[in-house]
Amino acid sequence: MMKTPAKSSEGALVLFSGGQDSTTCLFWAKKHFSSVKALCIEYGQKHSLEVELARKIAEEADVPFQLLDASVIGGLSANSLTDPDIEMDEEKPERSCPNTFVPGRNIFFLTFAAVIARNHGIRNLVTGVSQTDFSGYPDCRDTFIRSLNVSLDLAMEEQFIIYTPLMWLDKKQTWELADRMGVFDLVKEKTLTCYNGIPGQGCMKCPACKLRKEGLDKYLEEKSW
Amino acid sequence: MMKTPAKSSEGALVLFSGGQDSTTCLFWAKKHFSSVKALCIEYGQKHSLEVELARKIAEEADVPFQLLDASVIGGLSANSLTDPDIEMDEEKPERSCPNTFVPGRNIFFLTFAAVIARNHGIRNLVTGVSQTDFSGYPDCRDTFIRSLNVSLDLAMEEQFIIYTPLMWLDKKQTWELADRMGVFDLVKEKTLTCYNGIPGQGCMKCPACKLRKEGLDKYLEEKSW
User: What pTM, to 2 d.p., does this model score?
Assistant: First the structure.
């Protein structure tokens, strides 16, 4: 996690889905930057409820919310997040990416974020990707993010700074961060992480719910010591 | 220009707009790969004629043609290619990108190409960007392309190879290459490079037409020696 020594006078744009991770990042950004904008990208996920929850959380955080329709991404390739005919992998296959993988997703997301941030004179981008709970998504790794940061800078002749406050945190530590930011209850009750579209504790069966619950249990155990 | 020693048994996907450069690349790819696909990306350009011309050229080249609607890109930021209210810069401004610059365009284009190529089991991507007639577009530079190649590989855990046959050619040499590929007349008569949407020699006024004509005159002069 990159430290910003004091609250920056600059603005930041947060890639925001309304899930546990990006909600924690949204409040992290509010602590570290003088102004924050939330960018929510819709790309044909099955659960449009996700967007409505995200909008409400942004409202509660008093952060301007922009929704971008990028459904072209969802149509590019077969994956279980955007294609209702594909059943979701409950476990990661041993030798390949899980079929929830939307190829290129984080390139698209961060490039959209960079172009829109640039329009607002903002160079700070925040995303909730994490290498720790890697789950088989190659575009969540730190090396990828650093490489794309260079590609974005070269493409637009700008100097973007991609912040990844969760990169080296496991899910337990992400709950801890939410607590430190003062939004433990909000994250626990109002965010949607579940692949099956159920807010809060979710379906308890998909990989995202399992990770979320494991981390929460560990954090609550540690806290109760 | 990267050399491929003999005709590869692999396939290639060409980013294809129907302009001089990408048409030359399409025929270059046909010489170097056993099968070729053309991907045309529409992103809210003013001239949909461009797409129809591209489709006809691909047909003439006997290459499968895929059109991708990525109009989300055109709506991201103000530029004269996609916004009819902005008048096009006829000369490049001294200190900034020309207002025909669509920020992030080549990241989006090459990432779309990579995801679609991956669906077909293709790792070779061909694009007509050139650093020589740089014209102020940072995302046409070789360094950017190499950086993005790494980002794409990391994002999808694949090994893509981006070919840029025109990278170090000036417009005169691009005409020469078209001639060597046996498509000089086709490129001269049927491609559309003009920002104002006029095929062949174009409007003769926009920066693209000026570059095209300068190169053609030089090449014809050299050829007549």
Answer: 0.89
